[in-house]
Each structure stands twice: as structure tokens, then as C-alpha cells.
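Q: Joint fold for the lines below.
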Amino acid sequence: MFEVIVPGLETSIQDYPGRIGFWNQGFPPSGPMDSWSFRLANLLVGNDAGAAGLEVQYMGPTLKFQRDGVIAITGADMLPKLDGQPAPMWESFAVKSGQTLALSFSKVGVRSYIAIAGGVDTPPWLGSRSTFHKAGVGGMQGRALQKGQVVPVAKGTGTPGRKAKPECRPTFATDKIWTIEVVAGPNDDWVDEAGHKQFLSSDWKLSSKSDRTGFRLEGPQWTFTEKAYKKAPENGAEPSNIIDQGYPLGAINLAGQTPIILVNDGPSMGGFINPYTVPSAAFWKLGQSKPGDIYRFKSISVDEAQTLRKKLNSVCSASSIA
Amino acid sequence: MAEKIETMVPGNVWKVLVKAGDKVAAGDVLFILEVMKTEVPHSAGEAGTVKAVHITEGQEGVDAGTLAVEIG
Amino acid sequence: MIYEKPKYLPGGDRYMLIEFGNEMNLELNFMAQGLASAIEKSRNTGVIETAPCFASMLIHYDPDKISFKDLAKEMQTLIDGLGPSDDIELDSRLFYFPTCYLDPWTKAAVDDYCAKITKKKWDPEFVAELNGLKDVHQFVRVHSGTEYWVASLGFWPGLPFMMALDPRCVITAPKYNPPRTWTPQGTVGMGGASTAIYPVATPGGYQIFARIPVPIWDTEKRFPQFEKSICLFQPGDRVKFVPVSPQEFEEVEAQVKAGTYVYNVVEYQRFSVRNYKAWVKTLDKSQRF
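A: Joint structure:
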């Protein structure tokens, strides 16, 4: 339904909640990093909130439509233009066969989402259309969009002019500082009191060595409890080594002294401890932050994290569309 | 004829290929940024002479929209 | 140590990690897999998926359907229902793989590492020496002399982590430091006390010493074993490495390429922890092959 004229830095097909049920074979869910913006885009064009759409990272694509349709763009503002004229954000609008949509790059936030009425219609892999490029599955031939590809979209009826209520949209940090909620565990008892205090009171810089597999953080050294030193030798030599264990999505994985937040395309298991986990409701912040941004972590309980998730799910519904 | 080339992505400066005084043709790559393990080349839109270079090779954490090279 | 009572640890808003112990002990993995099987049978609607690992299990649950506390209670009930781990019985497929030990391809990868990164002893020699084995040939007899238990999959999609079932064949090996930047597809390697097979060419840190020509990963689903998934293994499978020559390796490789290769899988067996432990008791662990 649309041809890829310019692919952009890394534009891929994703759906929500992604590829579920294959964690025990090593498949992460993939899916959109900022599922808040993603779901609103779908609702704007009348799709189910989880329908397949595009995730655009850093630099946007140029797409040429081959038939009429209704689309919406949410997330980071990459100054979208339809046939050279500014196109709206957070609002559904009509596109006609032959028209070209071009996204540039964003100064605030880094990921944009494009939904098309009917939803992207590539063949699902293991139950999902989400792209997991490491394994070459999902999306268009298992990778980010390439120039010249024609992406199929199912027939759908969207209504132009629907808007996402401003109070229902995420607000991205403009001062490069983000407060990220975290829940202690699973391996919080491997870090001593001083280590916890340090983690929660320091500024952690997002490293440029970050992508959808993991978000690497730069900051002070961690300190550990006796548990990290007095353990069976097969755990490993480093204090942060543990017998290989399953990793929760969002785990802050301590590889030696380097914390790496495991995100949508990350590994499902490994031999390092996870003292904290970023809850699902905070993932959109990860998805919109860029290298050089500062994270300040705020510890919340499991209950509080689940309440945030409920709140976010209710915002990602038809009640947010006017 | 002056052209201001800004960075299109936030990232690290991997390579700077020009210095003040160099003559460039339209399409010449001026510098390459690196983000998400991907190289992002930035090219001159028009021919001209490099007036100033505001970034250095190896520089880390440059914002998108930063003035990088000026061509006169 | 095997914990008297498993630990229930939260992972954010949607995950629970159940720790059965803190050592590499097959028993702990049997418990993890026994629990995974019991959860599936119970049709617990709150659990979305499970991922057993060596001594633990990760659960992904739906907080709208069940709370962390209630899930922990339900899991404890299921674990109590499993009874002692001796009572655990699991369906377990057995795969025979033609395996070229001391092969030229992994040797080339090690040589490349020595040339470009840092010098080390050839992996089979290194591991043989470390484990007090006579020579690389004894290493091959010992490594190939046991069935391997697929304890978990992960780190890379489809990558199996396996433990030797015969205690006379347990070998340990440290990981590369720094790791290799590449490993041939189908490489068999060891790190710590676990054996792994590389499903595709990836970087890695395990000691490497053999290669199989049979895909354990197939996005094209060219063979019937991949009908349900592109990944061959499930936790609870067993593997037997059958030593073959490089010539035989290449013959099988050609069959795979032609699509005529037939997987050698045994699918009628049930693994009994009780029987396994009784058998292990009869063995003299100091007797190597």
C-alpha cells in the first residue's frame, strides 16, 4: 500500500504487545518501545490499539502511498510533510494515492510512530508482526525497511480529523533529564545499602552504545553484599555474576559494573544479576530518550508499578480520542 | 550561497572529513556521526568552501540540530 | 544449596523469578521444568508464559488477572503438589547429532582469535588439561559419552544450555576473556559446567571443540521438526553427540543443503528423576571413559 522511497535510520514494523509466548526459546517480545504513542496512533485511525504499524527511530523515512487511506503520526515530532506541506501530529489525516510522506529528524524525543487504517499486513511470525532483526523474523523479511520495498496494509476505514487529547499524550523531557520508575528485584539483595542509596541518588547517563537490545548506563560503581562474594564457584568470579537465570523485560542488568537496561529486543537469560527492573509503564520514557540524557531512578513498589500500568492502559483507549 | 549543516541525529562524531578552507562539491560527505551502532553521513548540499567546522572527531554526545559545518 | 522453600522475587510489574537454589544442580532444573509442566496442566489463566533456567524459573504474568502475592501462593501449591523432585517425570525427546569433534572449523576460529586478540591453548587441549584428562581423545570420549539435558534456551534465540546427565562426564571450563568476535554456526562449546550449541554464527565466550552439520534453527522451516517453531529445542530435551569424521560431517551437510536430511529423534521416552537418581547412585564418579 506504500512504497519505501527513503528508509530512514531504522524504521521497522512492530505490533503490541509483540511476540509473546516464546521467551523460553530465547525470543524477546520486540514491539514498540513507546507503546503509549504507538497505541494512540492506532486508535486515531480506528485500528485496534495493538495493530501493526511503523516504529521510526532518529531519522524518518519517505513513503509513497499507492492507494487512498487514513494515517496518524505520534511520538517524537520529526516535522512530517505530506507532498511538501506540514502534516499534523497526534491527529488522523487522509492520504491519497500518489502522495508522499516525509519525516525528517526530531529534536525532542527519538521515536515516531505511524499507524495506517487497516494495519500493516505482513505475514505474522510466531504470532506477531513485530520485527526481531537479530533472528531475522517478523516485519518485512525480518529487518528494518529497505528502499524499494512495498509494504502491504489491510483495508480499513479511518476517519480523518480525530485528535489525541493533549492531556492524554506523553510529554517528553526537554531538559535531558528523566525520572524513571524502578521496582527493586529480583536480585536486590546482592547490592548493599550504600549501593542502593548510590543508585537511587545518582545521575546515570545513557550511553551512545545503546539500542533496542540494551540501554547502557554510565555512572558510579556498585557495591555488594556478602551474597555476591560468598557463592558457589559456578556462579562466576565477578560479584555481579550469578548462575544463568531468566531476565525480566526491563531488568537493569549489571554486567560487571555496567548497568544495561534490557529492552524490547534484549536477551532472555544470562549470568549477571538484576538488582532492579523498569516496569512496563515507564518504557515509553526509555523509548523517547537519547544518548547523553540523564536518568534519575525512583524506587516504587510492585503494587505502585501495577497501578501505573493500569492507568496507562486506560489512557491508551478510545476515551483519549476526540 | 552560505550553507549551515546541522547534525541530524544525536550521537558521537565518528569521522570529520573536512577542515576550514577545503573546497567541497555538492554531495561530498563532510562528517559521519554514529548512533545506535549506525553510521550517519552528513553531506554538503551545494558546492563551496568550508568556512568553519564546529565539531571534532571523537566528540561524544552531540545533540541533533547542532551546527556542525558552515560552507560559504 | 537447594533452598528449603523456593524464593519468589518480583521483576517489575509483570514478572516473577522463582529461585530453587543457588548452585548448578540438575535437581534444581528438574524442579523448574516440573513446575513449568504443572503450570501448563493447571491452565492458570494469570500466567502468560514461563522460562525455566538452571536453578530458577521466570514467570511472565498478567497483573490484571492475578496479583504477585496470589501468584506466589499458587506456585507454592503447585510445587507442594509436585512432591519431592524424585517424583517428577517429564516427556523428554532424545536427539542424536552427528558431531565432528576436534574439527578444522572451530580450530580455525581459535587460531583467528590467537592471531587477532590474544594467544591461548587450543580449546580441547586446554579443557583436557584443566580436567585432568590424558589427552584430547579422552576428552572426546568423555564429552560424547553422556546424554545432555537441555536445561534452558536463551541468551541468543534457540541457543540451548545443556548439562551432562552422566556424572562421570562432567567437565568444567572457564569462558574466554575477552570473548571471541565470531563462532562458526553449529559449534559445540562449553562454559562453566554447561554445553551449548551455537544456532548461528555469533560472538561467544565458550571453549569450542566440535561442530554439528544439522540445523537447530531454521527460519525457512525446511524440515518437519520446525513446523511449530523455527527453534528445534525445548527445555527437557536430551542430546547425544555422536562422533563422526569430517568426511561424514560434509556428507550430512550436503543432505541438509539438499533438504533430504532426516533428523534422528527419539520421541517415546519419559524421563524419570527417581530412576535417574537411582542410576547415578550406582556409578563411580571417579571412573572416566
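Q: Anything notable?
A: The mean pLDDT of chain C is 93. The longest strand of chain C covers residues 2-11.
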